[in-house]
Amino acid sequence: MTSNYASERETTEGRVFTVTGGDWDDVVSGVDPINEGRIVVNMGPQHPSTHGVLRLVLELEGETVREARSVIGYLHTGIEKNLEYRNWVQGSTFVTRMDYLAPIFNETAYSLAVEKLLGITDEVTERANTIRVLMMELNRISSHLVWVATTGMELGAISIMLYGFREREYILEIFELITGLRMNHAYVRPGGVAQDVPDEAIVKIREFLKMMPKRLKEYEDLLSGQPIWLERTQNVAVLDVTGCVALGVTGPVLRSAGLAWDLRKTMPYCGYEDYEFDVPTHPDGDVWGRYLVRMAEMRESLKLVEQALDRLKPGPVMVADKKIAWPAQLAIGVDGMGNSLEHVAKIMGQSMESLIHHFKLVTEGFRVPPGQVYVGIESPRGELGVHAVSDGGTRPYRVHYREPSFVNLQALPAMAEGGLIADVIAGGASLDPVMGGCDR
Amino acid sequence: MTDSKPSTGGVPVPVTPAGATSGAPAEFPPAAPAGRGMFGNQGTGDVSGFGGLVRPQHTVEDSPRPYGGYFDEVRDALEEAYPAFGEAVEHVVVDRGELTLHIRPERIAEVCQVMRDDPALRFELCSSVSGVDYLGADVRRLHVVYQLTSMTYRRRVRLEAAVSVEEPHLPSVTAVYPTADWQERETYDMFGVVFDGHPALTRILMPDDWEGHPQRKDYPLGGVPVEYKGAEIPPPDKRRSYQ
């Protein structure tokens, strides 16, 4: 039964068909689906519900998944290797591109690691830390919004996708006001943040805080009582605490299994110990629980954003050390952010010393004493860890990202095998993998 | 200069400006090993004297006791629970508020087992496994670094095992920490460290037929030179830069 579309060959495990598209009836006509029905389906890497370029190889018996294997690496861009050829400040612009739904977290983790290497963790100003918390929590909401939007769409709820992206757009506008960019901000830098928060952004965030609780209620009205959503999420892709910890799964997935492990509480950083918020958990460890936990986390993040706004006291947003703080003399010009004309006039016209320093700082950057550190922060997907090594030079010797998307994806076979193929989608989506982060 | 070129029909073609290809700093790739000289250039007339600078190599030294914090407790608990401690642990380093135990590579799985199961240690979560290539600083240049987290005690510990490129073998810890599966595959992929006993040690980020291990320090970054205003700018790893 060989056709143009499906070649067949004998293997030790029986006859294997390779389907390349075309006439499905033609392919299955010679196969008895009851008795010899193990089909290998290659899902992805280009599939609407694989969150980017994730490929799943599924072995099916009827609609039951017998074996699931994830294949990753399609979005590998060698960011970690590239970092080794730029100076420490330039690292921010690379790491922000890893997990593109949570760029602020990538930057903050990197900055915390570099600061720990430099030994200036305590010198980071209070305002810088508060802005970091503010930005991270806004980013957490925007990331969870994309999660609820895409997962809703994948499970058949289209409207929630439109609403989720609408509200996320609002947060991206806030980011644009503050950092100048919707994504890839390179805003959090070693030593603080790149610029101060403008007043109009504060106004916009206040509006967002007023609007968002109502919108969250609307999402829940759309989803929480809907029979299809309940059917497709409750008792689906269950993973208990033991399974999570063994497989290294952290974040909302671990908390939805019942363990209140949140690095913001258990190993605080950026002053999280001074904020009031709860760590939502759920006992069941299914997709439904992960949905509830993420919805509750958005509410907690709103609380955190509000507290951060109240704490914003005037002050510097960068450490005092001018070497680390470079580029510090910035201003908005006609072509965007750049060195302020005042600074250029000074180094070019008045002070030779300033020119020398400027040249050294631009071409050389700062040196970081040799050693290694590991910093973990709570990203929307779990523990985002940075292992940074310095050899005493001006460039990172090695930076490794412990990406929660990468680690969490290992749990997919444990969730999918033995279940239905439709639940692979629900289980995979509930892990919230972002392939840009996973493959780096 | 113009007569040797074929006619272009009167269309001006870019000509390399005089001086752009001679003496531009960008033309001297870092041939010197890291840590020597200031700019990584070699073979050019060095009149500054900076080319002779040698940065001291970072060596691993045991930290004096007491370490402070929970580090003493962790060390003592491991020493008590693991009889072969003296033989398996090469160095104990406390730096920047972090504890690093340098473990003999063949012992790493045993140590992880004790670290996970001993009631006084309880490092239930293996946060991260990755590699670092200390080319030129260590004969056993490939270091595998394990970040362990104790959720019970809220502690972190780093284990480090060093292997050589000629004999890059150490036991896999997947039996103790199943989460190490993909991370060991990544370390194999990027550094060529072979984890014996791993269920399926294949490449994970690079294509299956890739040659070489990209994160090693002697693996080039790659890239092509680009032309900018007539001058040729080499790719980032070929540029002259501060060491």
From TrEMBL, chain A:
<comment type="function">
    <text>NDH-1 shuttles electrons from NADH, via FMN and iron-sulfur (Fe-S) centers, to quinones in the respiratory chain. The immediate electron acceptor for the enzyme in this species is believed to be a menaquinone. Couples the redox reaction to proton translocation (for every two electrons transferred, four hydrogen ions are translocated across the cytoplasmic membrane), and thus conserves the redox energy in a proton gradient.</text>
</comment>
<dbReference type="Pfam" id="PF00346">
    <property type="entry name" value="Complex1_49kDa"/>
</dbReference>
<keyword id="KW-0520">NAD</keyword>
<dbReference type="InterPro" id="IPR022885">
    <property type="entry name" value="NDH1_su_D/H"/>
</dbReference>
<dbReference type="InterPro" id="IPR001135">
    <property type="entry name" value="NADH_Q_OxRdtase_suD"/>
</dbReference>
<feature type="transmembrane region" description="Helical">
    <location>
        <begin position="145"/>
        <end position="165"/>
    </location>
</feature>
<keyword id="KW-0874">Quinone</keyword>
<keyword id="KW-1133">Transmembrane helix</keyword>
<dbReference type="InterPro" id="IPR029014">
    <property type="entry name" value="NiFe-Hase_large"/>
</dbReference>
<dbReference type="GO" id="GO:0048038">
    <property type="term" value="F:quinone binding"/>
</dbReference>
<protein>
    <recommendedName>
        <fullName>NADH-quinone oxidoreductase subunit D</fullName>
        <ecNumber>7.1.1.-</ecNumber>
    </recommendedName>
</protein>
<keyword id="KW-0472">Membrane</keyword>
<keyword id="KW-0812">Transmembrane</keyword>
<comment type="similarity">
    <text>Belongs to the complex I 49 kDa subunit family.</text>
</comment>
<dbReference type="GO" id="GO:0005886">
    <property type="term" value="C:plasma membrane"/>
</dbReference>
<keyword id="KW-0560">Oxidoreductase</keyword>
<keyword id="KW-1003">Cell membrane</keyword>
<feature type="domain" description="NADH-quinone oxidoreductase subunit D">
    <location>
        <begin position="155"/>
        <end position="440"/>
    </location>
</feature>
<dbReference type="InterPro" id="IPR014029">
    <property type="entry name" value="NADH_UbQ_OxRdtase_49kDa_CS"/>
</dbReference>
<keyword id="KW-0813">Transport</keyword>
<dbReference type="GO" id="GO:0051287">
    <property type="term" value="F:NAD binding"/>
</dbReference>
<comment type="subunit">
    <text>NDH-1 is composed of 14 different subunits. Subunits NuoB, C, D, E, F, and G constitute the peripheral sector of the complex.</text>
</comment>
Automatic annotation (TrEMBL), chain B:
<keyword id="KW-1003">Cell membrane</keyword>
<dbReference type="GO" id="GO:0008137">
    <property type="term" value="F:NADH dehydrogenase (ubiquinone) activity"/>
</dbReference>
<feature type="domain" description="NADH:ubiquinone oxidoreductase 30kDa subunit">
    <location>
        <begin position="102"/>
        <end position="223"/>
    </location>
</feature>
<keyword id="KW-0813">Transport</keyword>
<dbReference type="GO" id="GO:0050136">
    <property type="term" value="F:NADH dehydrogenase (quinone) (non-electrogenic) activity"/>
</dbReference>
<keyword id="KW-0520">NAD</keyword>
<dbReference type="GO" id="GO:0005886">
    <property type="term" value="C:plasma membrane"/>
</dbReference>
<dbReference type="InterPro" id="IPR010218">
    <property type="entry name" value="NADH_DH_suC"/>
</dbReference>
<protein>
    <recommendedName>
        <fullName>NADH-quinone oxidoreductase subunit C</fullName>
        <ecNumber>7.1.1.-</ecNumber>
    </recommendedName>
</protein>
<keyword id="KW-0874">Quinone</keyword>
<comment type="similarity">
    <text>Belongs to the complex I 30 kDa subunit family.</text>
</comment>
<comment type="function">
    <text>NDH-1 shuttles electrons from NADH, via FMN and iron-sulfur (Fe-S) centers, to quinones in the respiratory chain. The immediate electron acceptor for the enzyme in this species is believed to be a menaquinone. Couples the redox reaction to proton translocation (for every two electrons transferred, four hydrogen ions are translocated across the cytoplasmic membrane), and thus conserves the redox energy in a proton gradient.</text>
</comment>
<dbReference type="InterPro" id="IPR037232">
    <property type="entry name" value="NADH_quin_OxRdtase_su_C/D-like"/>
</dbReference>
<feature type="region of interest" description="Disordered">
    <location>
        <begin position="1"/>
        <end position="35"/>
    </location>
</feature>
<keyword id="KW-1278">Translocase</keyword>
<feature type="region of interest" description="Disordered">
    <location>
        <begin position="213"/>
        <end position="243"/>
    </location>
</feature>
<dbReference type="InterPro" id="IPR001268">
    <property type="entry name" value="NADH_UbQ_OxRdtase_30kDa_su"/>
</dbReference>
<comment type="subunit">
    <text>NDH-1 is composed of 14 different subunits. Subunits NuoB, C, D, E, F, and G constitute the peripheral sector of the complex.</text>
</comment>
<feature type="compositionally biased region" description="Low complexity">
    <location>
        <begin position="8"/>
        <end position="26"/>
    </location>
</feature>
<keyword id="KW-0560">Oxidoreductase</keyword>
<keyword id="KW-0472">Membrane</keyword>
<dbReference type="Pfam" id="PF00329">
    <property type="entry name" value="Complex1_30kDa"/>
</dbReference>
